[in-house]
Amino acid sequence: xxxxxxxxxxxxxxxxxxxxxxxxxxxxxxxxxxxxxxxxxxxxxxxxxxxxxxxxxxxxxxxxxxxxxxxxxxxxxxxxxxxxxxxxxxxxxxxxxxxxxxxxxxxxxxxxxxxxxxxxxxxxxxxxxxxxxxxxxxxxxxxxxxxxxxxxxxxxxxxxxxxxxxxxxxxxxxxxxxxxxxxxxxxxxxxxxxxxxxxxxxxxxxxxxxxxxxxxxxxxxxxxxxxxxxxxxxxxxxxxxxxxxxxxxxxxxxxxxxxxxxxxxxxxxxxxxxxxxxxxxxxxxxxxxxxxxxxxxxxxxxxxxxxxxxxxxxxxxxxxxxxxxxxxxxxxxxxxxxxxxxxxxxxxxxxxxxxxxxxxxxxxxxxxxxxxxxxxxxxxxxxxxxxxxxxxxxxxxxxxxxxxxxxxxxxxxxxxxxxxxxxxxxxxxxxxxxxxxxxxxxxxxxxxxxxxxxxxxxxxxxxxxxxxxxxxxxxxxxxxxxxxxxxxxxxxxxxxxxx
Length: 499
Description:
Structural class: alpha/beta
Radius of gyration: 36 Å
Helix content: 25-40%
Shape: rod-shaped
Strand content: 15-25%
Largest sheet: 11 strands, parallel
Number of strands: 43
Number of helices: 10
């Protein structure tokens, strides 16, 4: 569409370039096409190109498609093409010493580097900016280092699909705003792939089917603020993955098809506002989730963790208002009756529990077990089972609370003591006698409690023949209740001091 009405008024723009900056700027006014594709670049004698100070007419297409560049430095730094377009489709920089687009300003018409070939020289786009235009490196090949640091993309689709990188790749401090970053089916074979301290605001980032065969793939401190970030079907061959200290707003999918020879997958100290999915893979190495926070439960469906994984201080939290937080703090027991929002939450927490157990993080395992059970209320757990799970949750917090059953035991001691005292048919009986009998049934295994219980029975009811069936039933109920509460206290103490 862009080429439809272009007119070629300068037959050899390379000769005009060689005339100098002044001649170029004075000669060019309203040309719509500067086509270098048929020019003879051998006349440069390996001196390269330097477009410093050169101006490109508005609406012009600067075309270097299929050009085979020789040796030298090709410098397009500082070039302002905000109202123009650059095309390097099929261009070859295989012999170039450097290819520089530092601080180049691209506009709504964008740029295209499809099927371009870059040699061992550095390719540097540092501080370049794209304002509304798309840029495509589709099927391009980079033999040397490629630098895309501190770039700015606004309303731009950035396409690196099917690219091959043999050197180091660096995206550091780059900002993406309301666009899309496609890094699909890319092969990275250098030492390092750095994608650190970037900000992708309302920008989806897709790394699917890419092959990382470098030593390290680093995404530290990057903010993924799009709806989706996906590493589905990627391959990591002897490539450590560092996703620590990142922020993810939308769905974060880490489902590589192949993970071989990886020493670490580090997701520590990260915040995931959306769903984190690490499903469908077999990870033989360490997954580090220490100090990370999740707004939604993690999905580890079909994931097999073969070695220890670090999940210390991993928190699954919900974003709520201050008023709601205060209400939940003092009336947290009320929320155990609520149904989980997602039907998959129970499975997600079950996988997290397994991960914590294999990391020997018993506290986290207990926390995830409680969340797993609560997420299954009204779905997998119903009827009579639901009633007993409610009781277990309410009175012991799934074996995590010593205080709850202890307070219940003290309360039951007082209630049953008052009951025995009220059932007594003897005159002028002290309330202490009822408490003594209640204490004897509260801790029946204690030797002294047997004598105290017998003396209290005589004081309250006279002889054994005078004790009514109602008192016997009352005592049996207290024995059962006390035994259960003592068991819950012992269970909580065991979990508290478990190592």
